[in-house]
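note to self — DONT lose this again. spent like an hour looking for the file last time. sequence + predicted structure for the chain T wanted, 326 res
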Amino acid sequence: MSAKILTNSAIFCVCLILIFAGCAPEAETPTKAGSIAKSVDLKLNLTQGDSVKYKAVTEMVKDFKFVQPSLDKMKEEQTGTWIETIFTQSIDSVDNKQNAVATIKIEAIKFLAKNKGGIQLDFDSSSEKNQGHPLAKLIGKSYKIKISSSGQVSVVDVKDARAVSNDKFVKSFLDDKSIQLRHQIQALPDPEKSKIQTGQNWSKVTTPPPGMLDPTNFEKTYTLSNMEKGKIAHIKMNAVPTSKAAEEKTPKTESGMGIFAKMFDSDNKWDGQLVIDLESGNIQKYNETLISTYVAAEESRVQVEGKGPDTLTMGLTSSSSIEKLD
């Protein structure tokens, strides 16, 4: 990936200031080749009384690197959070539209937070040295969420868990958006379009996650790649930038660099997968990861033979994953 050359040093400096100021089988359909393609109902089929242990990981990290070869200087920064949660999900009730209310019991937490000054927090609930931290008080606590048949999550009751502390990291961990990100499954089609055949795909247009340098919408394409044992669905996802409007329910994204984003060469890779048991509704594994990189270069004021231009590289990694533990 080649870097664009900025011809105006003032604009280049302005960029820096702006950025760093803050399911049962359905009917069989003959294919063209004469084989039979089975249609399955891609919905969560959660059952009252079921209890499953999961590990969820969410990550939002920004990277910054400024290299000045002629001066033999380099500056690097990394900010963001990485959170791992082990929890037990118990299904309290399921309505006639297959929407489930679940109790989430927190079993373990790891929380890493960085800012420009370095590591703010490196917490592990299994470590003796961390037992005095407010996050340790969350172990064994519970909250309730509602999970739709298509994997969307809304918060029902977090009052008791939030009451343990006013610590900023506890508040961050139990924020509505954090809870939704930790538990939601985006790789399932809308309920009215849930009957899918192997090899068939469907799309969703979404805004990029907060912190994206260029707030361009993305079109996610999901494909039912294969069915294992007639009940385990394997779904793959790939996303590309699009000019299409995002769905109304998609949250708005921060403005990022605005027009300055056009001065950078960009590379975006957003993919994921879902493996789900359609009989039980249990997720086997799920992940979606966006890696976005922006690069720009400017000829140095001090010309040194054999030395390249000053180069600014900025990146964003945004990911969420869920893995069944038992």
